[in-house]
């Protein structure tokens, strides 16, 4: 489970820290207010990747360095993933254990260790837990039912870690209430678990 994220000079965020409680988290705000940047900050600290351009594009305007930090817990153990970038100079990527000791200190090692811990790679995490704005209809399209079911099967085992999860009934209620006219589109989710960022 992700417990917090901190962004410093990252995209539109000068200095932001967000703590997460148990349950589903929903970001609400005006376009351009930094909602997607929080998700990019999480994936950047975990895997060194975002949906944006190169690393220099992630620096807040006028800044020379930035960082993202994500704290998460797996099986009762706490970890911190940190990714730092500079306009000039090398970037830094590390994974720390519960007492601050380094678990991995090179980008490739960090990605591999996080993938081992959460049992998801970047691409699967993107598809399974993060729905970018404007793409909700893509996962509710009845013609893509098989693709979604295959994805659910692929990542169902992750539920044991509670890293990403929301129950079918919660997700279905959210979708049903958001667009009652398209209720039939959502029926193929029945008796499945919808996995979202917790």
Report the uncertain regions.
157-162, 164-171, 179-198
Structural class: alpha+beta
Instruction: Return Rg in Å.
Output: 17 Å
CATH architecture classification name of the largest domain: 3-Layer(aba) Sandwich
Element order: H for helix, E for strand: EEHEEEEHHHHEHE
The order of strands across the largest sheet is 2-1-3-4-5-6
The dominant shape is globular
Top CATH class of the largest domain: Alpha Beta
The H-level CATH homologous superfamily of the largest domain, spelled out, is P-loop containing nucleotide triphosphate hydrolases
**CATH topology category name of the largest domain:** Rossmann fold
The number of distinct β-strands equals 8
* Strand coverage percent: 25-35%
How would you describe this structure to a colleague?
This protein has helices at residues 35-47, 107-118, 122-129, 136-140, 145-155, 168-178, and strands at residues 2-10, 13-19, 65-74, 77-86, 92-96, 102-104, 164-166, 194-197. By secondary structure, it is an alpha+beta fold. It has two domains: 2-118, 3-Layer(aba) Sandwich (Rossmann fold); 125-197, no CATH class. A six-stranded antiparallel sheet has the order 2-1-3-4-5-6. The longest helix has 13 residues, at 35-47. Residues 157-162, 164-171 and 179-198 have low confidence and may be disordered.
Task: Describe the SSE topology.
Blueprint: E1 2-10, E2 13-19, H1 35-47, E3 65-74, E4 77-86, E5 92-96, E6 102-104, H2 107-118, H3 122-129, H4 136-140, H5 145-155, E7 164-166, H6 168-178, E8 194-197
Antiparallel strand pairs: 1-2, 1-3, 3-4, 4-5, 5-6, 7-8
């Amino acid at each position: 489970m992700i417990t917090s994220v901190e962004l410093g000079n990252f995209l539109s965020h000068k200095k932001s820290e967000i703590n997460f409680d148990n349950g589903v988290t929903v970001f609400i705000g005006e376009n351009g207010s930094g909602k997607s940047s929080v998700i990019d900050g999480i994936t950047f600290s975990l895997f060194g990747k975002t949906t944006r351009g190169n690393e220099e594009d992630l620096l807040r305007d006028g800044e020379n360095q930035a960082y993202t930090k994500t704290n998460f817990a797996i099986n009762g153990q706490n970890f911190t993933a940190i990714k730092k970038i500079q306009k000039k100079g090398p970037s830094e990527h590390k994974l720390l254990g519960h007492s601050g000791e380094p678990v991995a200190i090179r980008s490739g090692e960090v990605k591999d260790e996080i993938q081992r811990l959460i049992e998801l790679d970047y691409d699967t995490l993107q598809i399974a837990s993060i729905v970018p704005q404007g793409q909700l209809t893509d996962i509710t399209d009845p013609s893509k039912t098989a693709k979604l079911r295959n994805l659910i099967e692929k990542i169902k085992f992750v539920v044991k870690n509670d890293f990403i999860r929301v129950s079918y009934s919660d997700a279905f209620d959210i979708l049903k209430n958001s667009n009652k006219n398209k209720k039939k589109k959502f029926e193929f989710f029945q008796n499945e678990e919808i996995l979202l960022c917790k």
